[in-house]
Amino acid sequence: MRRYWLPLIISLLVVMGAGLPIWLTLANAESPQTPDSLQIIGHVRMFNENGPGVPGIAIYWSLAGYPSELAATTDQNGYYASEIRYIPVRETITVDAQGGKFFYQPMHYVWVHEGYPVGYSVEVLNFSAIPRTLYRIYLPVVVTAGD
Q: pTM score, two decimals?
């Protein structure tokens, strides 16, 4: 391993000797995720999975015992992607869609995120948006003849 450090050290000494400024950036080149992290992605579409995307729908997520937080908002195609979030080991996750004059199918997703050793995971959660005007309840009227 030492043989990889020697060229770097020599290069730094040459740059420093020339009086040039040095900027070092340390980053994880493998992945930006932490071992116990989660990202949710998906679509909100009108009526079913083949319908047009619905823009501007807020996607919320919450951990058990904590209030919901805004995870993402759908774009003009109905697509959303949350930031990568650290999730403690074995945590119940709830995700739901809110906004507009819609009912959503499913109403929400709930699962137990196992965390380590599962590590980084991406959950694809799609919602169908049903306009509230389509849900009208009609009760039958029963008429009986009196005596």
A: 0.66
- Over residues 28-38, the pLDDT tens digits come to 334 455 667 88
CA 19 to chain centre: 47
Angle (CA) 57 119 85, round 5°? 35
The answer to whether residues 109 and 68 touch, using CB atoms and an 8 Å cutoff, is no
Residue 12 host element (H or E) = helix 2-17
DSSP annotation of 70: E
* Eight-state DSSP code of residue 51: S
Each residue of 105-138: pLDDT tens digit? 999 999 988 766 666 789 999 999 999 886 556 6
Which tokens hold the place of 130?
Answer: 């049903």
User: In angstroms, rounded to a whole number, what is the distance separating the alpha carbons of residues 120 and 116?
Assistant: 9
| Cβ contact 122:39 at 8 Å | yes
DSSP assignment of 14-28 equals HHHHTT---------
> Domains in the chain, please, with CATH?
37-134 (2.60.40.1120)
